[in-house]
């Protein structure tokens, strides 16, 4: 008898077919609306594998409902939406998708940085709203990118890929991470800085670290106050790393110059969020990895992880821990 898998969003046909060759697949029929909690809890009770996304909260209650679950495979590199401790206690493997989205996410991070520094969205709005007037000397002036200092917090795969883009713009790069990485300093031409110095010296502060309880609101009022008045904060990691109230105050009061944000504490972000009302914020709907090739690559990798684990080849899967 085939093992059973529940998929929490509608998958492209090719992926559905691939999984169906191996497993009895049940799937939530929507692409954009996450599976309702009560359906997730009901479905997970009877399956061997769960294929999920960052929009699903896979907490202890989910694992407690599961009777024979062996694997949760998320179609994402981040797995902060999964209680990995509860999974481990139940002997459930957690799969994720490292590597495949690195360059695409670094591209978007740099695009967001450029759009924020050069006020691309605001300038485009002015044109479309008929407010261009005429060319004037200081109209829509932004911040230079070439030759500026970038501070990267979190030097994982995506952080490193971002360094390569920064180097193409002759930027000085500082980094801060849990442990110092002397071999990377040499290889990439970057300097380690403690968090305070990095915040004080950088023109662009880019958050490139995974979310965990230890880094909740790592960037708050005090940290923002350390930054330069012309500095820009870029967050393509996770919303919870930044205290959004402190950030919107800092942006309103000229404590920092601008922010490019692809991730929010609550997603989808409410239109009432004060950050969305500020002209010096470029806000995007969590699209860091959103290229056709990369999203399909992630979806296939998550399927591979599930197939490997359910077939007893854990060693071939990308699993946490
Ligand atoms: C991830 O993979 O964790 C991103 O946030 C979504 O691509």
List keywords for this structure.
Rossmann fold, 12 helices, five-stranded parallel beta sheet, 2 domains, binds (2R)-2,3-dihydroxypropanoic acid, 321 residues, alpha/beta, 12 strands, D-glycerate dehydrogenase
Give a written overview of the molecule.
The protein has helices at residues 13-22, 37-44, 60-65, 84-89, 102-117, 120-128, 157-168, 182-188, 195-201, 221-226, 244-252, 292-310; strands at 3-7, 23-27, 49-52, 71-74, 93-95, 149-153, 172-176, 191-192, 204-207, 232-235, 258-261, 281-283. It has 321 residues and is of the alpha/beta class. It folds into two domains: 3-100 and 292-316, Rossmann fold; 102-283, Rossmann fold. The strands form two sheets. It has a seven-stranded parallel β-sheet with strand order 8-7-6-9-10-11-12, with helices on both faces. Helix 1 packs parallel to helix 12 (292-310). The longest helix is centred in the C-terminal third of the chain and has 19 residues, at 292-310. The mean pLDDT is 98. The structure holds (2R)-2,3-dihydroxypropanoic acid (DGY). Residues 54, 76-78, 101, 288-289 line the site of (2R)-2,3-dihydroxypropanoic acid.
């Amino acid at each position: 008898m085939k093992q059973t898998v529940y998929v929490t969003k509608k998958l492209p046909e090719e992926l559905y077919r691939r999984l169906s060759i191996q497993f009895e697949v049940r799937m939530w029929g929507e692409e954009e609306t996450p599976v309702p909690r009560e359906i997730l809890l009901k479905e997970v009770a009877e399956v061997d594998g769960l294929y999920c996304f960052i929009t699903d909260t896979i907490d202890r209650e989910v694992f407690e409902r599961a009777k024979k679950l062996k694997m949760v495979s998320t179609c994402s590199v981040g797995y902060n939406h999964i209680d990995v401790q509860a999974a481990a206690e139940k002997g459930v493997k957690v799969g994720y998708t490292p590597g495949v989205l690195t360059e695409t996410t670094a591209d978007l991070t740099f695009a967001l940085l450029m759009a924020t520094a050069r006020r691309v969205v605001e300038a485009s709005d002015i044109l479309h709203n008929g407010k261009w007037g005429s060319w004037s000397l200081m109209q829509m002036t932004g911040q230079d990118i070439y030759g500026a200092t970038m501070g990267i917090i979190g030097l994982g795969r995506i952080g490193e890929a971002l360094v390569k883009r920064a180097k193409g713009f002759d930027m000085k790069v500082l980094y801060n991470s849990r442990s110092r990485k002397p071999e990377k300093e040499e290889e990439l031409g970057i300097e380690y800085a403690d968090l305070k110095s990095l915040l004080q010296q950088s023109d662009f502060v880019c958050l490139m670290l995974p979310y965990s309880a230890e880094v909740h609101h790592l960037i708050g009022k005090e940290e923002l106050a350390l930054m330069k008045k012309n500095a820009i904060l870029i967050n393509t990691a996770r919303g919870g790393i930044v205290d959004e109230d402190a950030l919107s105050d800092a942006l309103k009061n000229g404590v920092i110059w601008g922010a490019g944000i692809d991730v929010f504490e609550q997603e989808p972000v409410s239109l009432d969020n004060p950050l969305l009302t500020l002209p010096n914020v470029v806000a995007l709907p969590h699209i860091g990895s959103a290229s056709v090739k990369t999203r399909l690559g992630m979806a296939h990798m998550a399927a591979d992880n599930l197939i490997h684990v359910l077939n007893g080849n854990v060693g071939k899967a990308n699993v946490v821990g």
